[in-house]
Design brief:
This protein has 329 residues and is mainly beta. It has four helices and 22 strands.
């Protein structure tokens, strides 16, 4: 497809999202080999990134492994055609990954992976749910190069919790589901809690590689960056960030759905966000489906979105990268 053809297709996709919110490519099933299905009680994609070294997408799943041990330290590997490999990609250096939510590319071929940092079903804090990992590819494995607990972050004066840094109630139910590396910093998107204005908060971690290798976050390294209003246009149901990715032009693409305990949006949505240029623009509402991960395809012209289909089979869709429309803010 030529550059002009790509721009025209992207324009049509963006306009379809702006005016109807439910048009565009149709999600398809991800092909799951029998050998992988046999060792996985559930497959619930929650984050995705391309690895050039492996020639595969690395896909984070909420749970990994069988029903007796569903916190196995591994990721799923997916081809560009939407098929999982039989063998997962092991993460060396941790015994468990509990509630993995997002993965993104970092500098020098490394990756950042975060778990939700949320309380478990019993309302308890669990260390394996409170991890931000720095990963390096070794053969067909990923090795942990650093680790921190994001809830250990403090303001420059050494005080305040992560939620207070975010400008949110310190007793709110934290849920982190998005990371992306941008301008030598790691951006962290919150699914919950939402702000008093029902906005989703994005935080910034300065010099994340140094912090993770030192295994501690310096005071003041985490700051509040933006607040984004995300809602299903027709009903204005507020949503939290389920994942996001930065694009080369400085804009971002986000996937979102309603946080637990909030009014149900009956599905999720895909948005395009240009920081400093107004509200995020709805690209597509996915009725009865929950988009949980988004990344840029290596072709640079398309996005890949994966869906957590709960107990149903996992799904994915390829979406054209939005391009600015002349005169639009």
């Amino acid at each position: 497809m030529s550059g002009s053809e790509h721009a025209f297709v992207t324009l049509l996709a963006l306009l379809a999202g702006l005016f109807s919110g439910d048009k565009g490519p149709t999600p398809a099933l991800i092909k799951v080999p029998e050998a992988l299905a046999d060792r996985s009680a559930t497959i619930e994609p929650s984050g995705i990134v391309w690895s050039a070294a492996l020639g595969r997408y690395l896909v984070v799943s909420d749970d990994t492994g069988d029903s007796d041990n569903h916190h196995q330290p591994w990721l799923l590997a997916m081809t560009r055609d939407g098929a999982f490999d039989e063998e997962p990609v092991p993460i060396l250096g941790v015994d468990e990954v509990n509630d993995g939510e997002s993965i993104c590319a970092g500098p020098n071929g490394m990756f950042f992976l975060t778990t939700s940092h949320s309380l478990n079903l019993r309302g308890r804090s669990v260390p394996t749910r409170q991890m931000l990992l720095l990963l390096k590819v070794e053969g067909r494995t990923l090795r942990v190069e650093g680790r921190v607990d994001l809830t250990s972050a403090r303001a420059a004066d050494g005080r305040g919790s992560l939620l207070e840094i975010a400008g949110l109630p310190r007793n709110g139910h934290l849920d982190i589901e998005a990371v992306t590396y941008r301008d030598k910093a790691l951006l962290i998107g919150l699914k919950a809690p939402l702000s008093e204005r029902d906005g989703a908060v994005i935080l910034r971690l300065e010099d994340p590689v140094a912090a993770l290798r030192a295994k501690q976050i310096p005071p003041g390294a985490v700051t509040r960056l933006w607040e984004v209003s995300l809602h299903v246009t027709k009903h204005r149901i507020p949503q939290g960030i389920a994942d996001f990715t930065s694009l080369p032009d400085g804009s971002m693409v986000l996937v979102a759905n309603s946080p637990k305990g909030r009014k149900e949006d009956r599905g999720g949505a895909l948005y395009w966000y240009r920081p400093g240029a107004g509200e995020a623009q709805l690209l597509r509402r996915f009725k009865e489906l929950h988009p949980e991960g988004v990344t840029l395809d290596p072709d640079g012209k398309s996005l890949v979105v994966v869906f957590d289909n709960n107990t149903g089979p996992p799904m994915w869709v390829r979406w054209p990268v939005p391009v600015p429309i002349q005169g639009m803010n």
